[in-house]
Amino acid sequence: MNNSLKGQVALVTGGTKGIGKAIADTLSNAGAQVIITARTAPAENTNGQHFISSDFFQPESAEVIAKEILEKYGRIDIIINNAGANLSPGGGFSTLSDEDWNNDWQLNFMSVVRINKALLPTMIEQKSGVVINISTGAAKLPIWEMTMSYSSAKAALNAYSKALANEVAKHGIRVNVVSPGLVETPLMLEFIENMAKSSSVTAEEAYKSVMEKLNVPLGRMAEPEEVANLVGFLASPEAKYITGVNYSVDGGALPTI
Predict the structure, then answer these.
(1) Known catalytic residues?
(2) What Pfam family is a match for this entry (predicted)?
């Protein structure tokens, strides 16, 4: 993929850590000018990536991001909607407040809708573009003890993505979904530590419990780069006839075909 994205402008939301950072670096290495967003700037930025501070709980953040990108670069070729997290407490339906539900839906669904709405008109004018929405295997395999509101928001994202792919294909725009399973990121490790504390077990025991619950055939978590490699391919010209598809990167955990 060396220089396969040269001259292209790419946005990666949540691009300073974990999967988002791996995706941003993959696109940079392929020659793209990458814009990354997060609440705080990264400690290091060795790839010349343009950072925009954003808070996706604020509805206006999408317009602010789009305005800065278009004023500086005049175009947008790739949108990677990666920002997201499982924000709610575990324990099932009775533990979830309206605020818990709203937070998960704002970050994991509405933030994507708003970014796309702000930037897709430019792609339509260009008659080209790629949108990749990062979902989760939990949208198809929800764990009621841990991911109820998060899974529902991501399931909505999957349906929205398919509808959007069908709508914008005539404009030369491709829309796909990548659904990671367990990925060894700082956020995942924090989740496991919190799970261990709430269950009064060690982090190792909590990790083992999660792995057993999801029954990952490959027997390990993914590295962020293993997700980023697929995203990089889907963003490239090599994938120019692929749209409307949801790809699982879960080590075989999804028990259906």
Answers:
(1) 150
(2) adh_short_C2
